[in-house]
Putative dehydrogenase (Paenibacillus cellulosilyticus), 402 residues
Amino acid sequence: MGCGHNYSNRGDKSMALDQVRVGMVGYKFMGKAHSNAYRAAPMFFPNITRPVMQAICGRDPQGVEQARGQFGWQSVETDWRELVKRDDIDLVDINAPSDAHKEIALAAAAAGKHLFCEKPLALTLADSREMLEAAEKAGVKHMVGFNYRFAPAVQLAKKLIEEGRLGQIYHFRAWFLQDWIIDPSFPLVWRLQKEIAGSGSHGDLGAHLIDMARFLVGEFSEVIGMSETFIKQRPMPSAMTGLSAKGDANAPLGDVTVDDATLFMTRFANGALGSFEATRFAAGHRCTNSFEINGSKGSVKFDFERLNELQVYFTDDAPDVQGFRRVLATDAAHAYMDAWWPAGHTIGYEHTFTHEVVELMQALSEDRQPVPNFVDGVKCQEVLEAVDRSIEQRRWVSIEEM
Ligand code: SOE
């Protein structure tokens, strides 16, 4: 496969990997989150295979050099084509804007590198399938960045469902609400341009909800949706800016080509019903990523803004104490928590990425596919596009059609 894993005995896959040399493309928001995870993972999980922060890549030489120093990478590349060729890189981490994912992933897979790609996997379902095929053909490992799965409270919800403690699942309802573009003078950043981002709230926020639903409830069977672009034109940005960009009211206007909000309903293959809402126009909601699940024996509620907690209700609690109880998922009994702080000491957003990197390193050292991987990325994309089709054609769309 041509990558330089440091097996103590190169021929023996059962020997543990002692390091994975990472080359990362992108150094903005997600680049910072991933860098922090590579640093924290071996410190708090000392038994995992160690990620080595070998090279960081970005087009702007000054910007990427600044990020190298700040985040602690060993070297810099300004062209990802050079990065993927390097024989001192085992894993290529892709967190550049979505339109770059496919080309980088295909080249990296062809060079025998393992892949770690931010969500949504690609601009289209066809592209995501091509990425999966390329990874499978090259025989490399692949992971997609659905980080919210890795909150211990979400892992607890999964455990309760798997152990049957919520009974048969009837409802999954989820909403991801933000408000960072509610001001009409907010500029036309790349996330509002279809050719770069693929879609708007749907692919950016809805993708997380879809993955969460698949993780917790199961596969989707059919969907019907609606969406809206409330502000159809915005000032052109002066640079490649992100979520905290400032608008210039005098700049020329350009067309917004993505959705501002997308809502949809689903029927899951196991008979449960789901509802989903993703919007960037929910005033006051900075990053409300929530779900509620109702089963025959109980319910759970999760809200990312209180990510250490899971609200839990069991129908067989004694009648005089029935009600939702708040479980603080910080004890050593909860996933990943024995590596962090004493019980009751909370964790945050960045820890979800650290846990994601722990899973990635663990999978690589066990010579298995990490989860979630490109198969999950493709399945998410199937649902995203089924919803798009349903909106265009104003009808229910079965996932099998996709
Ligand atoms: C911006 O909408 C954003 O940062 C997304 O791109 C992330 O995937 C989500 O986790 C939080 O919001």
